[in-house]
Amino acid sequence: MCSPEHFAVEYAINPWMDLTTPVDRELAVKQWDRLRETLVGLGHEVHLLAPEPGLPDMVYAANGAFVVDGTVYGARFKHEQRAAEAAAHRAFYEAQGWRFIAPNETNEGEGDFAYVPEAHGGLILAGHGFRTELPAHAEAQEALGRPVVSLRLVDPRFYHLDVALAAVDDANIVYFPGAFSTASQRVLAQLFPDAVVADDADAIAFGLNLVSDGRNVVLNSEAVGLAEKLEAAGYHPVPVELTELKKGGGSVKCCIAELRH
Predict the structure, then answer these.
(1) Which of 45, 210, 215, 226 has the fewest CB atoms within 10 Å, i.e. is most exposed?
(2) Is 160 part of the annotated catalytic residue set?
(3) pTM to 2 decimals?
(4) pLDDT digits (tens, 9 = 90+) for 43-79
(5) Could you give the strand order of the β-sheet that contains 71-74, starting from the edge strand earlier in sequence?
(6) Which of 89, 128, 137, 160 is labelled catalytic?
(7) Catalytic pick from 2, 89, 254, 255?
(8) Adjacency order of strands within the sheet including 173-175
(9) How are the residues of the chain apportioned to helix, strand and coil, as percentages rounded to the nearest 5?
(10) Is position 254 annotated as part of the catalytic site?
């Protein structure tokens, strides 16, 4: 995770960013602190990446890389405003001794990659259409040695996979069908017949931008309907408020890069 002490909406690179809407940075830091404390309280270890001035979106730490089996496939951002973040993430992983593979293709880390380790022997679900380029899916497969399923995003509101889909345990997902092309919807329905299916209201509330340890599902407190669906499916929803960070087009998952040994 990376503190939002430099967070601001200084440019608009997704439909949620509004330059006329002020950001309360102090509140953003408080809400982020509460998210971090929630994860620690659930028994998880949180590593911190130092924020850098001039990079207001560094708080969205999930976009900096994608980690599977101790191997890190680095990010290469689409927009120049975020490009310098990639080096900060690489330095973090290399300092930790992780095996780092530098990308040649445009991709935004866990923003567009999700890992479901026990689904069909272990699958990487990969989004494209707005940020990550399709050739990055093949590059990720070669880097990580796991089969990649390409999914086309078609609604600009859901510009990253992680605002439209999430793994809720090692074998299952939750997703919003309307974010995907018709063919990608068919692929998801075939691969995950028991998935938790979200609706438009869940997605607009950034409910799908969540993290789960297989039991506890930490999600945006505005996604009340999705929390009820997850509870009915046997999970334990843990709501957190992230109103300020939502102004940049992100929520819980965007703030968290998962380190998979």
Answers:
(1) 45
(2) yes
(3) 0.97
(4) 999 999 999 999 999 999 999 999 999 999 999 999 9
(5) 65-68, 71-74, 99-101
(6) 160
(7) 254
(8) 165-167, 173-175, 196-197
(9) 35, 20, 45
(10) yes
